[in-house]
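User: Here's a protein and a ligand (NAP). What would the complex look like?
Assistant: Let me lay out the input and then the predicted complex.
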Amino acid sequence: MGGKLLIILTGASGGIGGDLIPSLAEVDSLIGIYNNANPPTRDLKNVSLQKLNLLEPGEIEDFISTRKSELTRVTVLHFAAASIDGLVASYSESDWDHVLNVNLKAAFLLNKALLPLMMRDKWGRIVHISSYVARNGRVGTLPYSTSKAGLIGMSRTIAKEYGRFNITANVLTLGYFNSGLTQNLKEEDRNRILAQIPSKKFGDIGNISNAIIFLMRSDYVNGAEVQIDGGI
Ligand SMILES: NC(=O)c1ccc[n+]([C@@H]2O[C@H](COP(=O)([O-])OP(=O)(O)OC[C@H]3O[C@@H](n4cnc5c(N)ncnc54)[C@H](OP(=O)(O)O)[C@@H]3O)[C@@H](O)[C@H]2O)c1
């Protein structure tokens, strides 16, 4: 890909984010961001971990200023997310605020802090992580599905504003994966979901890392939504 690249991956302590670290660290250096849970220790020479609450703009600013010399030709992968289920008519305002803040506002704050560095380098890759429920909806997922749909608009607007700096912003729209929350599904729920997936299986982590590497290598896929969902 030419020149030193750096991947910033949020949600490094999450199921999918954590599982992606080994394959992405083969591409180049990676900073894994977590908030509360310690990510599994990764004895990989290219990987460092950073504790950072993405809802605190001051913590983001400190992170950028402390590690500025490392932050060249950055790809940011927004895997951090929150989800609190409930039906619309009884949904709590504070839960709505929390999910929207983690899933949308945190992405805005981190993008805002990184874009000046990307413009300086005339190189940047932003990858937002959406879900098939953004387009399909699912009972009980009000702020989650709403925020995941919002990321599509955020990507397209960033693509239009910053494309001329060789900065791309795209969305991966994920279905069900053999990682993270799906590991806790009851057998009957798992079978019900599998019946709806044309590919008749949950996705492997390699499907996501391949798409990320493709987006890192392309300077002309911009504002796109890449569905990785087995056709659900
Ligand atoms: N699992 C699936 O099948 C699936 C399907 C569709 C889409 N997705 C999307 O894929 C991504 C990863 O999913 P997952 O299942 O791996 O999620 P997960 O296991 O629930 O992990 C969520 C991550 O978000 C981090 N986080 C939450 N609040 C934060 C904050 N304020 N500051 C910094 N980090 C914060 C958590 O950090 P701490 O734990 O350290 O607090 C954790 O690392 C999410 O965007 C999700 O919406 C997943």
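Summary: The first strand starts at residue 6 and ends at 10.
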